[in-house]
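As a representative case, the lines below give one protein's residues and fold tokens.
***
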Amino acid sequence: MSGEFIGLAVKLPESCRVCATNCFCGWTIGVSAATAYLTKMKYSLLDLSPVAEGQGPAEALANTLDLARNAEAWGYHRFWLAEHHNMPGIASAATAVVIGHVAAGTKSIRVGSGGIMLPNHAPLMIAEQFGTLATLFPGRIDLGLGRAPGTDMATARALRRNMEASDQFPEDVLELLNYLDVPHPDARIRAVPGEGTQVPVWILGSSLYGAQLAAYLGLPYAFASHFAPAMLEQAAETYRATFRPSQWLEQPYFMMAAGVCAGESDAEAEYLRSSQILAFARLRMGKPGKLPRPQHDLSEVPVQMRAEVDRALACAAVGSAATVKVQLAQLIASFQPDEIMLTGMIHDHVKRLKSFEIAAEVMQTM
């Protein structure tokens, strides 16, 4: 993305004001649109297609599309889906397929992966998949890449066959970028569709590794602070300090993720969030399942485990609209992201829609 970041505002170069082009971050900028974006922070949404207790994957995927359509109407910039495997409570395992489903059912919102776990796949196949998506939905597809397996080790072995694949992550990223770039005339292997689409590629991470790699390659960076916030500040500083301009990006572009659970009151929001606390705790205790119904009594979670879960989910805004506004403002002021991605797991789909609608209304005042 070209542009000079000043705090939370963006000063666009003159070329962006007159060319009405799609910048890397997905903005469509023209003379009439530029002013509206100068002081607005972009906010996006990460969905895991949660499978709630009492429902199955079909309902989860239908809810995902419904959420995406509403998110588009509420002004969310991106709608990302994540690759997880062998988890009864998550229906987005075939991530590229779900991205296509969501993109086909929406009109303008950017749709992408947050992320594709690249060690599980051959770079050529991902280039073909996302090249096809970009061909079908030009200017709307993002490709976020992660290094983790997105599952337990037994399932990772079933997916990868070669467990040393994670050590090749930087090489795999470069190979993938090459497939998506303008092809060399003598290239023996070409991604068709894919070549020349230059799908925007992001590096995702929850440690300094991803920050360093994104900075070295000159790619945008998204930090998974919604479930691993411990190194958020250090990763952001490392990425910005060591960023090298590239053909893809002139200046660092940093996105942080944050949980959100908004309700009519603080008490209602805390109650609704109990579903995510229970699901996360059960996963950590080796008992993954569907997204539980909310509960007032969380005594099934041992004290030590509850403390661990609270630390993991600490980067969040939970409460009424007023409370969520204060908490999101504090997060934004502390870490100065160029964009924030919100996520949240609520059992009741209607309540989940309301939560993200409240969050959008809050973000529109930032």
Notes: DSSP finds 13 helices and eleven strands in the chain. The chain has a mean pLDDT of 87. The chain has two domains: 1-40, 41-363. Residues 1-40 form one domain.
